[in-house]
Amino acid sequence: xxxxxxxxxxxxxxxxxxxxxxxxxxxxxxxxxxxxxxxxxxxxxxxxxxxxxxxxxxxxxxxxxxxxxxxxxxxxxxxxxxxxxxxxxxxxxxxxxxxxxxxxxxxxxxxxxxxxxxxxxxxxxxxxxxxxxxxxxxxxxxxxxxxxxxxxxxxxxxxxxxxxxxxxxxxxxxxxxxxxxxxxxxxxxxxxxxxxxxxxxxxxxxxxxxxxxxxxxxxxxxxxxxxxxxxxxx
Length: 234
Fold this sequence. Notes:
By secondary structure, the chain is an all-alpha fold. It is built from 9 helices and no strands.
């Protein structure tokens, strides 16, 4: 009797998951997939080159804390873009549904990893340290949300992405004391590009919508990479 009950629960969960796995938005045609693949490919290649160069520079010229921050940021950037490429190119299937969880979770990692090099420099200030901890805690909550409840709360996740991205404003005063003005400018510009791209992320009926959205992501990531370069070793 207990085995039957357990089997029923497992079957119901499997059926729900199989129903949810088709929530990928509209299907993209061949040309849209090619365009999206090119954008992702450019992003992954430049992320690999940039992360390698940044980590080498940090290892040779900076402190252990900044070196660790460079590793966290570099790995976060490469993993996020690589997972996004894999997920978006994969055909609709159960595997894609699993990859969707990793893709959406990787966005939380990327945001927290991007903030890390900027906040580590001023971590002696309790406000900045609290922000750093808060961002990673929020990332952990977001990842749990995405993995535990796939396909649900997507709008809430977008709000969390935006809230994390602009949370630096809560400690703008202390942060501005530890970072060059050019770094702060690049952080804000990159954040604006990310935020503007969200319009295309939710505009699913627009042709090439996904490629355009990821174009904004790659561009914003490049701007933030420049910000990290100006901050590391300063």
